[in-house]
Amino acid sequence: MTAGRLVNATGPWAARTGRMVGLDLPVTGTVQQVIVTEPAPPLTHHLVALANRHLSLKQQATGGFLIGGGWFGGFDAATGRTNPLRQNIEGNLWVCERALPAVKALSIVRAWTGINPAIDRAPLLGEAPGLPGFYNTVTANGYTLGPAVGQLTADAILGRETIDPRYTLARFG
User: Which of 47, 81, 94, 124 has the greatest count of CB atoms below 10 A from its CB?
Assistant: First the structure.
């Protein structure tokens, strides 16, 4: 089977996919850890992030909080599985309670982990040099930027959009 266009949208596995066509992509992965609390009355309508401490805090429509940030989970290279780390859950909650003290009274419902792409804080988009028809669309903010980078990539493939060079593989030399 052949295809006129191919899009590498494989997230943290983008470097592995790139190697299949001879590309060296500067993409790795980090194990993100998320904590979910029981529902609470509305306490914030905004994403809370701290510059001096690792924290990402947002309240869902159901009232529960999603707590994340730079407190990574564990990774077993032999199995490829990720797992929450208790000490990092505790560290993340410690920071969270200082930003929004009311969270301390809430019960934790669950925690989970997943692998997130790691690049250089900007998406990797556009047609690969020397590989006509091979496009990368990788972002470290997949859940947030996924729809936007998908639309940019589709528009580039259809000739309706030019990808800004600051977001292409060319920025890595």
Answer: 124
